[in-house]
């Protein structure tokens, strides 16, 4: 459960979705390019984009955080790779949020780190 204690900014502006989309397209390449190669191909199919409040951890605080509006990009990742014993292999990962972007400033939120 989350208890809202204070409102930091009462009336804030969200970035246009066109800006968020550009950030998503650019940062997906940056985030996943190191994994892709000639023998390891990644195919993303984004089928749902949601705007919701996302909790960001405050520095040096584990019990408190900030709720910020953020865009989440969900879908399916298909990974195709070559295994020398089994030949070409395919794995699918469904329903994951592949990227979360702060709707106010356009920064990418690392869900594993919490900020």
Short description:
This protein is mainly beta. Helices cover 14% and strands 48% of the residues. A hairpin with a 7-residue loop joins strand 1 and strand 2 (65-83).
Give a quick set of tags describing it.
115 residues; mainly beta
Question: How does this model look, in words?
Answer:
The protein has 115 residues and is mainly beta. 14% of the residues lie in helices and 48% in strands. It has 1 helix and 4 strands; from the N terminus they run H-E-E-E-E. The chain has a 4-stranded antiparallel beta sheet, covered by helices on one side. A hairpin with a 7-residue loop joins strand 1 (40-57) and strand 2 (65-83). The longest helix is centred in the first third of the chain and has 16 residues, at 17-32. It is elongated, with a radius of gyration of 17 Å. The model has no long low-confidence stretch (mean pLDDT 90).
């Amino acid at each position: 459960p989350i208890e809202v204690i204070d409102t930091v900014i009462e009336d804030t502006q969200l970035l246009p979705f066109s800006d968020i989309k550009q950030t998503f397209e650019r940062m997906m390449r940056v985030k996943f390019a190191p994994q892709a190669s000639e023998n390891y191909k990644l195919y993303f199919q984004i089928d749902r984009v949601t705007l919701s409040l996302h909790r960001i951890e405050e520095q040096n605080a584990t019990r408190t955080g900030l709720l910020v509006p953020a865009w989440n990009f969900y879908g399916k990742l298909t990974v195709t790779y070559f295994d020398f014993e089994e030949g070409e292999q395919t794995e699918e990962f469904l329903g994951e949020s592949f990227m979360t972007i702060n709707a106010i400033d356009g920064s990418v939120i690392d869900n594993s780190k919490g900020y």
